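Posting this for the archive.
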Amino acid sequence: MADTTDSDGHTGTRRDFLYLATAATAGVGVLAFAWPLVDSMNPAADTLALATTNVDLTGVEAGQAITVMWRGKPVFVRHRTQGEITAAESADLSTLIDPEPDEARVINPDWLVVIGICTHLGCVPLGQRTTDERGEYGGYFCPCHGSVYDTSGRIRGGPAPRNLDVPEYSFTSETSIRIG
């Protein structure tokens, strides 16, 4: 094989060139293989489309609740009665498993918005319908393992380690909210 000399006096052979070309081709091949794998870890288009959900609260009377889906999860929206608000605000925080004041969990005291998934094992608690068992604190009750939540979605008894999660939400008007 013939040696080649560049302007700086370095010598290289065709073999050196072939090594570089092979390494570059292999690098491009690895990237072409890895990109679809990494890209598959991104959220699906249908999930991204549900990044925000607008909820019309018109017609939901005090004491009623609705369930909406957001990112594949049930979200409980409850129009609380004055009694439920009073019970949530007057709870002794020192007796709570996961102490959090009601004011930190709601934007408007009349409306409670929580993700309807029990924080113990991912069950969906009862309490959305007026005929559902709500437990001794009048909030939500998970019949699978006996977790009891109050009217602010805070854990009051049972194996659940923390309160029902509050999604990011905002009021877009007096009668509608945007979740997400």
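The chain has a mean pLDDT of 86. The chain has three helices and eleven strands.
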